[in-house]
Amino acid sequence: MHILHICSxxxxxxxxxxxxxxLSKTGIQQTxxxxxxxxxxxxxxxxxxxxxxxxxxxxxxxxxxxxxxxxKIRTILANLxxxxxxxxxxxxxxHFLFSDGGVxxxxxxxxxxxxxxxxxxxxxxxxxxxxxxxxxxxxxxLQAAEKVMFVTPAYRDLLAKKYLTYEMSNGILSAPVxxxxxxxxxxxxxxxxxxxxxxxxxLLYVGDFTHNKNILHxxxxxxxxSETLEIRITLAGGGGNGHKDVLKLLNQKGFEFAEYVGRxxxxxxMKALYARHHIFIxxxxxxxxxxxxxxxxxQGLPVIHTAGQGIDGYFVNxxxxxxxxxxxxxxxGNALKKLVGTYKxxxxxxxxxxxxxxxxxxxxxxxxxxxxxxxxxxx
Length: 379
Hints:
The chain is of the alpha/beta class. The protein is about 40% helix and about 15% strand. It contains 14 helices and twelve strands. The chain has helices spanning about 15-25, 70-85, 100-110, 120-130, 135-145, 155-160, 165-170, 215-225, 245-250, 265-275, 290-300, 330-340, 345-355, 360-379; strands at about 1-5, 30-35, 55-60, 90-95, 115-120, 145-150, 200-205, 230-235, 260, 280, 305, 320-325. The strands form two sheets. It has a six-stranded parallel sheet, sandwiched between helices. Strands 9-8-7-10-11-12 form a six-stranded parallel sheet, with helices on both faces. β1, α1 (about 15-25) and β2 form a beta-alpha-beta unit. The radius of gyration is 22 Å and the shape is globular.
């Protein structure tokens, strides 16, 4: 079987290469088509030593394609058709509904190649929400797909509830949810946590400092809590349109409980960072998945996350993953108290739950979908 991946975000996130490598070990042939805007993206996250994987980077996108959607799709389609023998392709996997699914939809119309499509954050919170003129096309792409997939239950439910007709939403609500995964090293030599937390309560945030990550709100809530609770928070990562605002706030009186440590590179260094903390907290306004939550869980950290976003829906009524509103105040305090009260149990169950996010298991789920839909089409 020969799978064509269309992935416009491949050169920006390493997780796609991890998926392709895991899938390559199942023996299927894969071609990954990556349209990019800049020369520095060409070759990024390249894969070597896998003879059944071919990556094609196409430096064809320009600034105008950000607003001229149909021109972008036509440009990608023409370039892709010139570089790939589509007669050898059994199935297309479009990794974004609009940016990649628009091309897959055209390939099906022209070449009768079936496709699967994954719905992600920008599809719902940018395209469906703001680009209303493309909504009808988005629904056509969904309807023409052999299978629609989501990385979180939250986005599946949101799409069905807010942007689809009643008839379409019934089908979407039964669509498979396949998460992003972690490398095997995350599951090796995990230290067991203590029964109780010895103050101060050590919180950890890992990620960029964009406004979407909602860090300023989180810090103000924690400042209020620090008046009655011995608490510390470490901020790791940085960058983004809110970076300067976060650093400015940290320098103000009353925020001594927070420390910025910059970027931490490498799995071993990250594991050591998680080991020094008790609870992971990230209350983004929007979150496609949030792999840092699963990293933290693999190291025994219970997590506080945003309700209706990211990993919400994976761990319903769990002891270790507490959803709160992005703009919540008292909710965060209540979540912390709950996790502290059942810390040992929450930590142990977090580690167990994280094991379901290995790339090996995820690749197997994708392979089953590929086989099911490719065979169905040929019959």
